[in-house]
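step: validate -> pass
step: tokenize input -> pass
step: predict -> running
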Amino acid sequence: MNNLKSRLAKEKRFRLYGVASITLALFLLSLLFVSIFSQGYTAFQETKIQLNINFSEEILDPNKTKDWEIIKKSNFSLLVKNSVNELFPNVSGRSNKRKLKKIISSSAEYQLRDYVKNNINTIGKSKKIWVLADDDVDMLIKGHINRILPEDERRIDNEELKWIEFLESKNLIDKFFNKTFFTSGDSSESEQSGILGAFIGSLFALSITLILSFPIGIATAIYMEEFAPKNNKLIDFVEVNINNLAAVPSIIFGLLGLAIFLNFFELPRSAPLVGGMVLSLMTLPTIIISSRVSLKSVPPSIKEGALGVGASKIQAVFHHVVPVAMPGILTGTIIGMARALGESAPLLVIGMVAFIVDIPQSVTDPATALPIQIYLWSDTPERGFVERTSAAIMVLLVFLIFMNSLAVYLRKKFEKDIG
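step: predict -> pass
step: emit ->
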């Protein structure tokens, strides 16, 4: 009786330990998500200032060429300067006026240039236009810079603070949805930086990874499980090495890609093509192992029944065994792709850590990836990049959750169709 009570007490304690462990893990995971969200949700907003721009023809085209394609950037800079000076006519002195113009982002000049090219009829007229504010102003409006802090701790002096408060009183400064974050590439200015370049780079790299690893991985698994001779030393050697490769650190695959693809074959550095090839090497063992497990889980009676009614071995495998195993094969493939999406170490080794402003147009153009973009922004001390880092992590988590949810959905769908 005492032994029974002791066993029951141990079992109860073991359950409590398990519940406590799961609760602690969920709490820490929630704490991580809350921390990321609290720092990154403001990145989906951008601060803009409304300016009354006078598109003077004398400024834009002093030589009367009427060729609006060759308008200089300095001409639009002068338009911004004049508009800001109109808002604050009492500001005098070259240094103060230079400081006043700095509350506007340098991207305003490019914004006005694009606006003029798309709206030639506005030349000679005045137009109220919302332009991006400087990153420090953006941080102040979003509450990341405390206004009551001493002047030397907030990077915005008292005079600049008065100008911003004046704009607020006139409703000339406001927050909008941050389209720039999703439509532009990287930039040295946080208010102009976005994830589009990194997203396209990740998309290209994952496409190459899927094209290479999916057919090769499944073909290898089918051969080793269904057609390879048993008790063969060469097959056993290959199987052991595939299992070992699944546990190799990802940076080793990056070093392999550096040695073979870049140094030997001289493929373009920092290109999604090379990144996808490296990630496919890393993903192949995962796909092969998961596919073999799925093939093993198919009841032998399915293949034996097909063989019994006269089907060849190839027909039995590809028409009966593989369709039944496909849910597990797809699940393993998608999980392997999700792992590849979050990898940064092998991409760092092959040079995808470069500062890339342009959006890649093909798999051979220089590009970076979402994990690398997060790494680059996290290493930047400016406050604007802190929220950009958390926001990019949120986007990456959304894609990872989507890919894992897709794996679950496909597994259930195929199992239902087969059943």
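step: describe -> The mean pLDDT is 85.
step: cleanup -> pass
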